[in-house]
What we know:
Layout: H1 6-21, E1 25-33, E2 36-44, E3 47-56, H2 70-86, E4 93-103, E5 109-115
Parallel strand pairs: 3-4
Antiparallel strand pairs: 1-2, 2-3, 4-5
Amino acid sequence: MYIPNPTARLGEEIASKYLRDKGYKIIDKNFRKGYGEIDLIAIDADTLVFIEVKTRTSAKFGTPFEQITRYKIKTLERTALFYKKLHPNLPDGLRIDAVSIELDSFNNPSNIELIQNVYG
């Protein structure tokens, strides 16, 4: 079983709460298929949403969103379609969102951003 690093795990917990507060219903976490992984899977209204969470403690290597490459988005799309095939009873509308989390020196979120419909 895949266990994300502590910063990633914390970011996913923060993102889950943030998204729930925005009305998303989190239904799965850390879904893995050989070629890809999806951090969070949720339902937002009548749409099945696959969420990439990027968490950073500094901007040394760029912002969290800058770490989501076109290749990563393509991998997310492929993994999302596989997940949907495994769960045909879930909503037919599909979307990929991204959450950026920046942590301060005490591991508290200093900035959280959501981008809906991230496509490469």
